[in-house]
Each structure stands twice: as structure tokens, then as C-alpha cells.
Amino acid sequence: MLLAMLACRVEFSPPGQGAAAPAGGQGGQEIAEVWVYTSMYQEVIDALKPLAEAELPGVRLQWFQSGSEKVAARWEAEQAAGGSRACLLATSDPGWYVDLSRRGLLLPYVTPKALGVLDVNRGWVQPDHAAFRISLMVLAGLSAPPPVSGGEAAGSIVAPPISYALLADPLYKDRFSTGDPLSSGTTFTAVAALETALGPDWLPGLKRNGWVASGGSSAVMGRIQSGERPYGMLLLENLLSRPDPRVSWAIPEEGAVAVPGPLAIPRGCGEPAAAERVYDWLFGPSAQEQIVAGKMHSPLPEYPPPAGAPPLSEIRQLPLPADFYARAAAESEPRKQRLQQLLSGG
Amino acid sequence: MAALRGGEALLRLAAAVFLLMAVAMPLGALLLQLGALRWQELPAVLGGAFDGAALLNSALLCLGVLAVTNLFGVPLGVALARVRLPGWVAMGVRLPYVIPPYVSTIAWIQLANPTNGLLTGLLPLNIYSLWGMIWVLGLHLTPFVALSVQDALNRVPASMEEAARVAGAGRREILRDITLPMALPALLASAGFVLASAAASFGVPYLLSASSSSPDPVLTTRIYQALELSPATGRPQAVLLALLLLVPGVGAPLLFRWMQGRRGFSVPAGGRAVEPVALPAAAAGVGLYVAVAALLPLIAVVIGSFTLRLGAGIGPSNLGLKPWIDLLSDGRLHRALLHSTILATAAATAACGAGLVLGWLAQRRGTALDRGIAAAARLPFLIPGSVLGLGLLLCWSQDIRFVLLDRVSLILSLPDTLWLLGLAYTARFVALPLDGARAALQSMHPSLEEAARISGAGTGGVLRDVTLPILMPALQSAWFLVFVPCFCELTLSVLLKGPETEVLGTLLFYLQSYADPSAAAVLAVLVVAVMGIGAAALWLAGRNRGAT
Question: Which residue of A44, A97, A228 to mutate against B (max B Cβ within 10 Å)?
């Protein structure tokens, strides 16, 4: 009880004002507190903080950073409890935003600055959310992997795969891994895209070939580097942020899966006007430059690619139907059930 | 008598407030998630949640871990209590427990993964299997059983074993007929803890199962998947699966109480302790356990912390101090270290206080209400941290405002504060001191407390002057058992932390998952070092009391 009392804070106000103290700033200027729930890397957030302070007067940004799925779990729980303080959602699971949009939980706002994204990919801009960073799922592997230990190819050195379809080839049996599509939204999106493009036999082929699906891209990178699974499918940003001369990567023949990282203002945001300012700012040069410095691509064509990567316009992308994200979101539950059965099967 | 009733009423009120905030409201909020389902949705949710393979694997994991912990833990406990051991060996037995399971699993993957593990071929074990999970989790939890047995045996006065010896019993008969039966309550309490821990464990099964091409799913990994990929629709499924996890946690103590029957296990307090004997073979066995369960994974982690590039060998060109220099100069580490130290210390102390009160009420008063409250307090330990975290978010993610006279607001604002993390940690781990206190009280004859009461002491006085001093060794152990998981807690923290409340568990997870595994290894070494120092201090305190 004493501890509960200690955890309380006390506010005073004149009679009739309901004892609610307004947020104050320097010189009497009101400060709007805007909570951003995001999966952006901590390093990017740390770089954005001082810029936001200088360029967004009257706004105090608060960041909750975690993995996309944790952010979604927290926001949904808060929502179920009566409302979240989040005013911006910025994670990397596009399916969740389609679902939120379908449930009417997003404010219909898109910054005019996002119009340039329409020229790159029309599917990345929706009436209530738009991609403000792009991640690319590519193939990577040890340039000099350990020789194959069994079967007909025993003793031979196998070059890293150059297409997603090759992961189901016996040459790569028990030698590749991916992130876990059942716990990583980015991997789930990529797997759904590849299943759409490569057909329903691709995933069972992966399974027969000893598919290990665990963790996220960082875990895949670790398995490649250690040689435990010398090839894998992972996000380009992980390869660029931890460069290793022994690991080479390739844009797959089918085209890289581009996973958009959407930005949206959820309904219930207490500071919608300030949230719109932050939304605009995140599409502006300061934030976009930091996103590129964080090894992700900007969806806006005027920004350069991250160091070590070609521009988005020069990267072959996996062609997807215009309504892919909407269909993927609608089919996500049966797909998850199928994946669960497939991955659990011995 | 009035003081007695007043003291007890105050204790019950404090216990009730704690339980309401930390247990009843979060768990109630979770159950309401089920209540919100429409009837027509129920078959789909049930169908989605039920997974026979996960259920079977969880049961096998629990039984396997119970077998491993007892196979190693009982002899280790007897050796700790009855054999003269070198100091580092006696202290080293605690080490596997102080290495966070997340860290030891990564270490065992490096040591024993079937492709290129350092020990592959030497160990007849596929680490990416149910057996691997049993092995890693069993080694991690063995110290708990060993220390429980040791603690129980240390309370057995030498006179009991001497009487048996005088009556002609040999060493083996004494062990079988006198010593081990006296350890039975502690053994059964620790078995309950082991079963509940194994059932609710997530990190070890996830890391080992998911890394296999033929994964062995368990209930907690299914809960994780339900929450991760379908945060809205997956919540009822996660709650349903979490309810299944309550079966071993609630059922085991009932089963064990039935097994104990009406036998009494109390011994007179204050008797002379049994003198340990020199048994070199037993000491070597304990040393072997310490080497395999603690030193091997520690060496793997320490090497990892100096490795500049993962997988590029461990030659001089790939080793250096850079990961240490980088992390030690990182401000996030300093903040996280401070927060975790405060939280773990506060949560361990609060959990011990609450556990003592709840255990004492349940054991000494024993009314249905007291026993019910004690049983309820154990529930948060029996479900995965992610589910408890959701329950806490459902209850405490909004400010609660009390307006007085239209002028003064008293606002309970827990979201994103250390308070909420502290409440969560205390709720999750209060079961440990509670069980410890109940086991110790079972071995302590109530006549001492009755004598104090007849002499005029109130409830507070009895607890402070009689019960607490006698229970102090058990509570010290329990304090440490709570401090250890809180110091590097992850599953609750990752949901409940705020922008200014980074803790070591979330930092370790971030470094391992998104940043730099070498930096994560450095942090793991630091965490183990801090907890190793704590374990050594506790061991020294016990030795100074003459406990070892």
C-alpha cells in the first residue's frame, strides 16, 4: 500500500479545472507529447532525437522501441485496456497496418511528402498509412563455405544460392536458414510474397530440404557467420550494418522482396495535430537521411541508397500484385496455420 | 490477543492489496479476454490454440527436467551438506543458476550444435531437440534442488543421525531412513518449482527448438507465436494455452501434499549441525558437475566476448578488447545496470516480505482463505512472462486518477515506470520465497512461536523475533533466487519498459538480436560476474553461519 502511494504523483489546480494540469513548456508555450511506437533501430532513434528537438518546437517525442511484434502486442493490449498513448506507429509489418486499417483504427492521414512514393510503388501509400522506409530481403552466404559433408556432392564447395527457388535444391540441403515467419512479421511478409510468386510447392520443398526458421535476420546472419548454416535469406540492412568480408550477398534472380515499413497515426491519439507534424518530419530530409544512415532504403527517389547498396530503382524487385498486402492480410490466419503445421512436421 | 488480531488483520490487508494489484487484476483482465469472445468464435479459438504435439512435448519437458534436476540435485545437495568440499566447488554449484538461461542456451549452441559445435561428437546429444532442452534447462535448475536439499539437511540436528548410528544403522541406512526423508518437504517444494519453471520456460525451448529443421514445439513457444503474429486475435489463444500451463503448477503442490500425507517433518531448532566428512570421490563428482554445467558454457561466453568476428576462429587475429571497450563506454549499459540493480534488489526484498507473510499465514493459520491467497500468489509464476506482461498492461497501461475536492489529483501513473516493472517482477517471483518459507515453516515446530505468544508477543513481534531469524537462511536463499532472474529479466520487461527504463534483459536481447553478438557476450559476462559475486557473498554468509 505504501509502495502504491509512493508511485502516485499529485497535481494541483484551481477549483473547477478538474485538477488536470496542462503540459507546459518554456516561456509558457504548451508542449505536445507525441509517443512513437517503433521498431526502428535504437541507433537511428538516438540520431533522430536531437534533430527532432531542434526541428520540432513545441513537440516532445517519446519513443517506445521494440521488435515489430512486441510493439503490436503492446499497442493492442493497451487498446483493449481503453486506449494507447501512441500517436505514431512505425514498425515493419505491413500486414498489421492493413489489418488496423480494415478495423478502422487508423486516422486517414498521409503527408503530401509521401506522394513521391507513389511513383516508386503505388501499393506503398494507402489513405491511412504510407511506407517511410524500405527493407529488402536478399540471399547471402559464406563466400568460402565448408565443403558439403555427405551425399553425391560430398567434398564439393557450393556457391551461395542466386535464387530463392534454389533454396529447395538438394545442393543446399541442411545448409540454409531463414527468420521465423511465425514470430517475425518481416519474414512472414517475405514468405507470403515468395509463396505467391513461386507457387505452393516452394515451402514444402524448403521443408524437405531441412529448412531452419528461427529468430530474425540477425540470427540468420549469426548462423551464416558461424558456418552452422552457411546460406540464408535475410534483410540487406543486417548485412550492411555488420559487414563481414567472408559473407557475400545477392539480389535473387526472382527479385528481392521489398518489405515496406509503414507509418500511421492510430485513432485515439491525443495530439493528432502534433502527430501530423512528426509524420511530415519523418518523411523530410533529416529523418530520411538518418534512415539511410541506418542502412535502410528511403522510399522517396530523391534520397541516395545506403552505403554499399544500389539505389532502389536499380534493384530488381519481386513483382507482386497491386493488392498483395490486402490479400496477404486477409489470408494471414490460414497461412499461419499452414506454416505452423509445415514447420512442426518432422 | 487484540494486538495479535490487529497485527494479523494488517498483514492480511497488505497481502490483499498486493494480490489485488499484482495478481487478481492482471489475471482477471486476461480471463476477461476470453469472456469477450463470441460463442461462434470459440471453436476457431479453441482449434487454433490446441496443439497435441506441443502439449505432449511440454509434459515430456517437465518430466525430463524433473528427472535431470533430481538425478544431479539430490546427490549434490547431500554432498553440499555432508561432505567437506573445496570452497570454489561448493560455491560453483550455484553458478549454473546464475547464468541466465538465454545466455547458457546460446553457449550450449556454440558448444554442441550438430554442424560445428566445439563439443560435437563428444556429447551424445542433439542440442536441437527435446533432449537438448531437458539438458540445458535441467542443468540450469539443478542448483535449486541441490540448495533446497542442502538447506533442509542443514536444519537436521546431528543428534538425529547420531541416535541412528548408536542404534546400529550404517551410513547408507542413515541417509535412506533419516537424512533424505527429512529433506522430503524441501525436495517436493523444489520439484513443484522445477515443474512450474520447466512448463513456463520459453527462452530455452524457443532457441533450441526453432533452430532445428524438425522443431519440437512446446506450449510456451505456441503462446509466443500466437501473441507475436496475431496480437489481437492471438490473445485469447495465448490465454487458453496459458491456462493449460497452470495444470502442473497448481497440480504438483496438491499431488506432493497428498504424497506427504499427514507425516510431520518438524525438527527442534537450534541443534548442533552435522559435521561434514571427507569423501574425495564425492567432491570430484561435484567438481565435474560444476565444470560441465557452469565452466564450459562460461568459457564459451567469455571467448565470445573477446571475439571480433563471429565464426572466424579464435586465433589472436580475431580476439580483442574492442567489444569490451565499446560496451563499457555505452551510456545505455550504465542506465540499464542501475535500473536492473534497483529493480532486482527491490523486487527480491518485496517478494521475500510478501512471501514470508503469505507463507506464514498459510502455514500457521491455515484457513481456507489463507491457503487460497497463497495459492493465488503462485499463479503469476506458472504462466509465461509474456502473458503476465499482457495482463499487467491491460490493467495498468492507463493512469488512474483520484480527484479530491476538485483541486487535488492523486494519480497512479504506472505505465513506462520502474514501479510497474518492480510490481511485475515481484508478482512473478513471489512464489519462490513463498514456497521456501512454507517449506521452512513446515520443518520448524510451532511451539517456539506459541511460547513467544504466551509471553505476550503480538503477531509482528513473533514474526520479527522468532520466525524471521529462524527462517533467515531460507529467505536469504530465496532473496537470491528472486534477484537472479530479475536482474536479467526479459519477457516482462520487453513489454513493460518505457523510454527511460531500459534494463539489462532488454539491452542483452537488443544486442544479441539486432546489434552485435560480441557486445551481447560482454554483457552476459558482466551479468554472470555480478551474480557470481552475489552467489559468493551468500555462500560466505552461509559458511560463516556454519551452514556449509
Answer: A228
* Inter-chain residue contact B228 with A242, CB threshold 8 Å: no
B416 and A3 within 8 Å at the Cβ level: the answer is no
Query: Number of Cβ pairs closer than 8 Å across A and B?
Result: 188
- Asked if B235 lies within 8 A of A188 by C-beta distance, the reply is no
Per the CB < 8 Å rule, is B230 touching A66? no
Residues 188-227 of B with CB under 8 A from A: 207, 210-215, 217, 224-225, 227
Judging contacts by C-beta atoms under 8 Å, the chain A residues touching residue B426 are none
Convert B27-40 into a string of H (helix), E (strand) and C (coil). HHHHHHHHHCCCHH
Does the structure show a pLDDT above 50 at A46?
Answer: yes
Beta bridge partners of B420: none
Which chain B positions have a beta carbon within 8 Å of A333's beta carbon? 48, 230, 233
Distance from CA of B273 to the nearest CA of A (A): 40
Enumerate the residues of chain A whose CB falls inside 8 A of the CB of residue B311. 224-227, 246
| Residues on chain A touching B416 (C-beta within 8 angstroms) | 64
Contact in structure between B413 and A21 (CB atoms under 8 Å): no
B228: chain A residues, CB-CB within 8 Å:
69-70, 73, 182-185
pLDDT at B548: 39
User: What DSSP character marks residue B272?
Assistant: P
Task: Say which DSSP state B59 is in.
Answer: H
3-state secondary structure of B163: helix
A window 83-122, beta carbon within 8 A of B: 83-85, 96, 99
Percent of chain B whose pLDDT exceeds 90 = 22
Distance CA B210, CA A178 (A): 11
pLDDT digits (tens, 9 = 90+) for A22-31: 444 445 567 8
pLDDT score recorded for residue B91:
86
Which residues, in sequence order, are CB contacts of B91 under 8 Å at separation 6+?
B535, B536, B539
Q: Which three cell numbers stand for residue A317?
A: 524487385
- Phi first, then psi: what are they for B66, rounded to 5°? -60, -45
Going by pLDDT thresholds of 50, 70 and 90, the confidence category of residue A149 is low
Specify which residues A225 forms β-bridges with. none
pLDDT at A185: 80
**Given an 8 Å threshold on Cβ–Cβ distance, is B393 in contact with A78?**
yes
Contact of B309 with chain A, judged by CB distance below 8 Å, is answered with yes
- Whether residues B411 and A85 touch (CB distance < 8 A) is answered with no
ipTM: 0.77
Q: What is the pLDDT of residues B255-300, one digit of tens each?
A: 777 776 656 555 555 566 677 888 889 999 999 999 999 999 999 9
Chain A residue with CA closest to B396: the answer is A81
Instruction: Count Cα neighbours of A154 within 13 Å in the Cβ-side half-sphere.
Output: 4
Q: How far is residue B127's CA from residue A125's CA, in Å, rounded to a whole number?
A: 45
Query: Does A13 contact B409 at a Cβ distance shorter than 8 Å?
Result: yes
Distance CA A173, CA A291 (A): 36
Which pLDDT value is given to residue A154?
Answer: 61
CA distance B175 to B266: 18
DSSP B459-520: HHHHIIIIIHHHHHHHHHHHHHHHHHHHHT--TTHHHH--TT---HHHHHHHHHHTS-HHHH
Report whether A215 contacts B206 (CB < 8 A). Answer: no
